């Protein structure tokens, strides 16, 4: 079991505290494994096995527990309320009104509670009101590159790091496909199965969507336009040109459903001159780049967008708030902020042509403030600094914190 140290560090201060730990994230990102790791930690520090109750609501064992009353009764029948208990609820969004039962557990006896879910709406306004001040939320992603490397420790040396990066670019970071030595075609089959499960269980069933074909077509459009700004209108216009008319409201509804499953993330543009967030022409990124290759197949023309996708997920993993920068007619791929720190990033594949260098450095040169500015590419030997703008290899960006200092 590979320890997800960053997530453990994020949650460690709340362990054994009367705060509900809510762990969300895309299906198969490692939430269940993380819960098992937490249980092992508790056993190591002296908690007895009888004090721990784990329930995975996707298991047939708990098929009859589908509302808060059933959940409350089962827990009360299976714990010793005279002792402190540790409750782990996996994929709890399946249970109707689960928050009422969980809130009661916190009120009625001494407990430490952990829940996971694969839907971002599991903490709706009503739930947030009921649990105000009683929960902390942690979003788990599929493996970022440094975590992926832990599965490849026996292969790592300086020469192999870029080869491993290309494997990561192609296959993505779902933990299950790296836990065993799968051939690429088999890895893509597993990722496609994860994709189908998310579409059917977390999107179609959860949101009662009627047109699965439209949902898939919208997501395919998003995948085919990774790294490009577009709007719901552009998607609707595209379908119209294909003699498949659909209104913008439907497109928005389906995009919102896909966001709620954590399959995609919406990134707004930020006007660097007016200092305001723009509500049109967003970008969308996938939670895991392996999904694109598993669904659409591998194509070299997608690599620039995939690199952007990987950098975006890395920034999220490191706790940055991310926007697309707009400066008049120029665009900066990412404006990343955390606390008082801000960094500007351009992402490209190769910097072989002078016009390519001008295109990537140009928007950053137009920004006059003092914040750090980087151009990231797959070039390992291109080391240049143009008027304070530093080039950095993507592999170095993903594996060090040099750029954060």
List keywords for this structure.
41% helix, alpha/beta, 13 strands, Rossmann fold
In short:
Helix content is 41%, strand content 21%. With 405 residues, the protein is α/β, with parallel strands linked by helices. The strands form two sheets. Strands 7-6-8-9-10-11-13-12 form an eight-stranded mixed beta sheet.
Instruction: Report the portion of residues in β strands.
Output: 15-25%
Q: What is the helical fraction, as a range of percent?
A: 40-55%
The tally of domains stands at: 2
SS class: alpha/beta
In order across it, which strands form the biggest sheet? Answer: 7-6-8-9-10-11-13-12
Number of strands: 13
Q: Can you give a write-up of this model?
A:
- This protein has 405 residues and is an alpha/beta fold.
- It has 15 helices and 13 strands.
- The protein has helices at 5-12, 31-44, 68-77, 98-108, 125-130, 145-150, 161-171, 184-207, 212-224, 232-241, 248-260, 290-296, 303-317, 354-365, 394-399; strands at 20-25, 52-56, 85-90, 111-117, 135-140, 264-271, 276-286, 321-327, 330-338, 341-347, 372-377, 385-386, 389-393.
- Helix 7 (161-171) packs across helix 12, helix 8 crosses helix 12 (290-296) and helix 10 crosses helix 11.
- The longest helix has 24 residues, at 184-207.
- The model has no long low-confidence stretch (mean pLDDT 91).
